[in-house]
Amino acid sequence: MLLIDRASFIMKKISHAAMRAGRSPEEVKLIAVTKNVKTDTIKEAIDAGLRIFGESRVQEAQKKISDLRFQISDSKIEWHLIGHLQKNKAKYAVQLFDLIHSVDSIELAEEINKQAEKIGKIQRVLIQVKLSEEETKHGVSEGDLMPLLERINKLKNLKLEGLMTMPPYFEDPEKARPYFKRLREIRENINSLRITPNALRELSMGMSNDFEVAIEEGATMVRIGTAIFGERSKL
Ligand SMILES: *Cc1c(COP(=O)(O)O)cnc(C)c1O
User: Fold this and answer.
1) Cβ distance 232 to 59 under 8 Å?
2) What is the CA radius of gyration of the chain?
3) pLDDT band at residue 76, thresholds of 50, 70 and 90?
4) What is the mean pLDDT of residues 184-205?
5) Fewest CB within a 10 Å sphere: which of 74, 92, 152, 213?
6) Distance between alpha carbon 4 and the CA centroid of its chain, in Å?
7) Å from CA of 171 to ligand 1 middle
């Protein structure tokens, strides 16, 4: 299958999942995950109509974004950082990304804020929440979420738009459902208690294997790589 066919197949599935849940398909944004995907292929994806791209490493993204800048004149393209961000790369991240999905500590939030302030930017961010006990996963625990929210509320160069999570991998996507449901409940609690100055809109959850379940549970952003670009190999 061609990239354009795979992309439109996924977009159709996104629409159907949204409608099954009584939601409007426009509420769900597709983040095409381009880690380990070559610049030429990303160009092809842009030609196929994709507009939001997710990268997991700052350095890899830096090269692609600057390469593509000379090839495309479509300013509507967005770049999102979906992978873990080290504090010492925050400086580059604020230069490159429209949205950072992976804020998971007060220290990181403060550093992003500081770097954004330096370049006069209001950086859009999501908080990555860790809902399972897996040792390797990044993200703030539910217990540490409240202090992080309170701190972010005071940071003038951050605009908190929502939450992100990454459940453990399950063969059966139904097993991921409780994690997606939990993230939505957390957002609803935050919004009903008015913990943040603006209501949180976004829920970044769902990948190739489980995005339909995530949409049924309220995802507003799904991060899809393999289902669009095929199995990844290292660049
Ligand atoms: C790689 C990655 C994805 C996409 O995963 P696929 O299974 O290839 O769709 C989504 N989110 C994050 C944080 C990732 O690192």
Assistant:
1) no
2) 17
3) confident
4) 98
5) 74
6) 22
7) 15
CB of 116 within 6 A of ligand 1: the answer is: no
- What distance lies between CA 180 and its chain's CA centroid? 14
pTM for this prediction: 0.96
- Nearest-CA residue for atom 6 of ligand 1: 225
The neighbour count for residue 201, using CB atoms within 10 Å, is 13
Cα-to-centroid distance, 173 and ligand 1 (Å): 14
33 closest CA partner among 212, 179, 211, 180: 211
Give the number of the atom of ligand 1 that is nearest the alpha carbon of residue 226.
Answer: 8
Alpha-carbon separation of residue 113 from 8, 62, 65, 80, 197 (angstroms): 37, 20, 22, 17, 17
Residue 106's contacts (CB-CB under 8 Å, 6 or more residues apart) are 147, 148, 151
Choose the residue to mutate in 6, 13, 207 for probing ligand 1, maximizing ligand atoms within 8 Å of C-beta. 207
Identify the residue whose tokens are 């190739």: 208
Tokens 């230069």 correspond to what residue? 95
SS3 30: strand
Which 8-state DSSP code applies to residue 36? T
Residue 158 CA to ligand 1 centre (angstroms):
24
The finding on whether 6 has its CB within 6 A of some atom of ligand 1 is: no
Q: Is the pLDDT of residue 219 over 60?
A: yes
pLDDT at 201 over 60: yes
Which pLDDT tens digit goes with each residue over 21-61?
999 999 999 999 999 999 999 999 999 999 999 999 999 99
| Atom 10 in ligand 1: residue holding the nearest Cα | 223
